[in-house]
Design brief:
Strand order of the largest sheet: 1-4-3-2-5-6-8-7
Strand content: 15-25%
Structural class: alpha/beta
Oligomer: single chain
CATH class: Alpha Beta
CATH architecture: 3-Layer(aba) Sandwich
CATH superfamily: Vaccinia Virus protein VP39
Distance between the termini: 18 Å
CATH topology: Rossmann fold
Number of domains: 1
Helix content: 40-55%
Radius of gyration: 17 Å
Bound molecules: S-adenosylmethionine
Number of strands: 8
Shape: globular
Order of helices and strands: HEHHHEHEHEEHHEHHHEE
Length: about 250
């Protein structure tokens, strides 16, 4: 582990640059998130009625409960989940916080709670870490953004599986699909109309929240995502639904 951490710390600053190039889908996603980074947290709190705060807190508790000394958060955005993880990490636990959007990671780097974390500008689909490195990989509200395509999502999840140690855990917090039909319809209407309109008004980005409104109702339900995790090589997959199934935390083991 010492070698891995040394490798992370040789960067001139806390930033480690690992971006080599993206496909066109990733370029679009990168543009969207870089555009909304300055207001990202505010828009999230407003559009979820503040529920994203307890959702992340709960996911961080689930993630931290398994212990370990080297944790990776991918697609970390402004670092809100990482701050939660930092509060629960043991004194000998090192956290690597990574995202491919510079405006997002620079916001994360300003957070008081992340002073001890390493920040990595990294594409989650090509992680610059050796096999079997981490005890824990965490992702929140981003699996949906990596790709809506089942096969490509499986490939991306395999990359998280690759960098986990045998027995290491993967925790995924993501929007899901309520099981009750009326609630599912209401959730879809809310995503399609309210997220799009208020996201645009608050953030000033026309395309950013149109994109989010498009992906939320189309993402896999909790059962399908479990199957995808098994297809990606994980075992012992289970999940907890929250807020009538609008959101789910998946746990999986390598
Ligand atoms: C909806 S935000 C979620 C941010 C944070 N995890 C949270 O809980 O608020 C999605 C994040 O995923 C990042 N992202 C999307 N695709 C990525 C990829 N291929 N590699 C790295 N980061 C990616 C975006 O830059 C963005 O910061």
């Amino acid at each position: 582990m010492a070698n891995v951490i040394k490798q992370f710390n040789i960067a001139v600053s806390r930033f480690i640059f690992n971006i080599e190039g993206f496909g066109s889908m990733s370029k679009g996603v990168l543009k969207v998130f870089s555009e909304v980074a300055h207001l990202y947290e505010l828009v999230n709190h407003v559009l979820t009625f503040g529920l994203d705060i307890p959702w992340r807190k709960k996911a961080a508790q689930v993630a931290a409960s398994g212990g370990g000394t080297l944790w990776l958060e991918v697609c970390s955005g402004t670092g809100e989940m990482a701050v939660n993880l930092g509060k629960l990490a043991g004194s000998d636990t090192k956290i690597i916080v990574s995202d491919f959007s510079m405006p997002m990671v620079s916001r994360a780097s300003e957070k008081e709670g992340l002073r001890k974390a390493s920040i990595s500008l990294t594409d989650s689909q090509q992680l610059p870490f050796p096999d079997k490195t981490f005890d824990l990989v965490v992702i929140s509200f981003a699996t949906r953004n990596i790709t809506p395509n089942r096969l490509r999502l499986t490939q991306s999840l395999r990359e998280f599986h690759r960098v986990l140690k045998p027995g290491g855990r993967f925790i995924n917090l993501e929007t899901s699909q309520p099981s009750s039909t009326p609630l599912r319809i209401a959730f879809r209407l809310y995503s399609k109309h309210v997220i799009k309109m208020f996201g645009r008004i608050i953030s000033g980005s026309k395309t950013g929240y149109a994109y989010l409104a498009h992906t939320v109702p189309r993402f896999f339900n909790a059962e399908d995502l479990s199957d995808i995790l098994y297809e990606s090589g994980f075992s012992k997959v289970d999940y907890t639904k929250m807020t009538f199934g609008a959101v789910a935390i998946h746990r999986a083991v390598k």
